[in-house]
Amino acid sequence: MSQNVDVMVLGAGIVGTASALQIQAKGRLVALIDLAGEAGRETSYGNAGLIERSSLTPYLLPMEPLTLLRYALNSAPQVHYHVNALIETLPWIIAYGLNSRAAAKARIGAALLPVISACVTEHQVLMKAAGALDLCRPTGWIKLFRSERELAKAAHEAEGLRAAGLTIDQLGLADLARLEPDLHGGIGALHYRDPAFVPDPLGLTTAYARHFEHSGGVMLSGDARGLEQTSDGWRLMTSSGGLTARQVLLALGPWSAEILRPLGYRVPLGIKRGYHMHYATQPGAKLNHPVLDDEGGYLLAPMNQGIRLTTGAEFARFEAPPTPVQLNAVEPVARKLFPLASRLDKDVWMGRRPCLPDMMPVLGEAPRHKGLWLNFGHQHHGLTLAAVTGRLVAEMMTGETPFANPAPFAITRFQR
Fold this sequence. Notes:
alpha/beta, D-Amino Acid Oxidase, Chain A, domain 2, 2 domains, nine-stranded mixed β-sheet
């Protein structure tokens, strides 16, 4: 049985699901396609739950020689790499380093500013429609410091963010104890108050998908590798038969480059693997905010499933088996900071963050394939940017004037 829609969205993570909702709101009949046949089961499931309104500057490669040496020696908790993946990852890391210089940082920050600025409000619009506003908590997050040097450096950077209108409180030990009485460590902290916290990222993606279907959208199982261009659009075999559409949106996160390669597009999409585990708490203990122990190399977040400990970045071959050495290394440190009890998950979870070396997503239409649209490569900000980049792409796909300049995000920046 063949079915026809206006738009098919490939990938039902938080980016694809939010994009499907935004396109649907423009009056288009949309089908949301995922290999699993359900939403939010891959990278979207395992994030730290932050809608990161305060990330006006991109995550840069640290340039301090001692830090780089620790990375090279595989002795830093923030980064781990597989030696057999170095040939694949080194060109990406070098390009990332070049984009971490001051001039590139300013250009990238300017491009990201309008989308980062709208990230919370765009999610709130979708959350209200989906009946999921209870999953948006205005707690912000706390960054803990263990050295005066790092605290002073971050406090200086915070001044620039305050000048851009953000609210950031510097916390002494007494202030920190008032907000988080069960934390035991660090010399001070910064409280970034503008971001929102989602205590159940999977629940949010599921709520969006449910609202999408209730509003007339179609959710199907299908393998994006079977996508074919036709004379008047695109075709894909799904669990319900053939599906055709005038437009297709590729929102497959870390799998996007694989789908684009046969079409002649080479995208330097790097993969930063990350791990998490949920924990019970000792009797009477409570964590009120997500807390980043930056020097410790991990983040604790009070999820509905328990306290989620998330790790830094791991560079490995795409299909390499999980190696949760970072989680095992930081868990004892985290237990000293906060009274974690037993592990709650049977297995350590691993996800793949899709990252481009200039720290910006790919958005817009593919230049050589009419009707093929792109929305992937959100770095560590898939949840943060899902609703707002979904809106931007929806506006472009339907011929509206986009609310922000999409030119810096075009795939043509990587084409030679």
